[in-house]
Description:
The protein has nine helices and 13 strands. The protein is of the alpha/beta class. The chain has a single domain (about 5-135, about 175-270), classed as Alpha-Beta Complex (Spore Coat Polysaccharide Biosynthesis Protein SpsA, Chain A). Strand 9 (about 150-155) and strand 10 (about 160-165) form a beta hairpin. Helix 2 packs antiparallel against helix 9 and helix 6 (about 185-195) crosses helix 7 (about 200-210). The longest helix is centred in the last third of the chain and has 21 residues, at about 250-270. The termini are far apart.
Amino acid sequence: MRRSVHQxxxxxxxxxxxxxxxxxxxxxxxxxxxxxxxxxxxILTAREAGIDRFTVVTGYEAPVLEEFLNGHSVLGLSIRCLxxxxxxxxxxxxxxxxxxxxxxxxxxxxxxxxFDARILKxxxxxxxxxxxxxxxxxxxxxxxxxxxDATKVAVRDGRVTDIGKGIQNYNAVDTGIFLCTQGIFxxxxxxxxxxxxxxxxxxxxxxxxxxxxxxxIGDLFWHDVDDEAARLEGEKRLKKFLMASAAPKAxxxxxxxxxxxxxxxxxxxx
Length: 270
């Protein structure tokens, strides 16, 4: 069934070890791409797709990230933080931390992915059956710069049949953009009971019962920011995307507000 989606769960608990070598002094979600912190970009992009309530799961350096989100109140949106004290373990635990805090369908997003808001709109417009979840996938793996580290997806007849970084038979790549029902939490608990704690393990549980569906993003823009090289490439691709799109005045004002927020944080760090 089709429903309005107004809430998102953002995973922002990891350490981002691959950025440590670049000497960044703050949590990965606060690393800037084209002058705006990653977490702000995720929130603003989701807002373009109609999301106005956000739950952010924090972990590594949680007080720093929570102070940023709570103190600056990004554009007046509703942002709630939940802390995952087991952030060193696989990311499925961060998703499961939100069980009981979300009702109805919700977008599940990563804090370090850049993407076109139309991907979320496409998910929101797709049919979502009770207990099922949707994953936006890219059927052009050759476009992914760091394919070796990407999460691969096997899709058949519109359903995800397998997922993981190490699978050999795949035809798509996971963009990290989901539309979920409460079924994701049941699947994660089932996976954890078997000693598997990753988000992909929960997705695999849903796939096993044919409850994990794939939505093709076509040529829409997305980019995973995992290290400094990916950040620099992401800046180039993002600027090209923004120049090609008819960015409304409101979007420019929003991003300007986030730039001011980022500048204020940098001054405070000095």
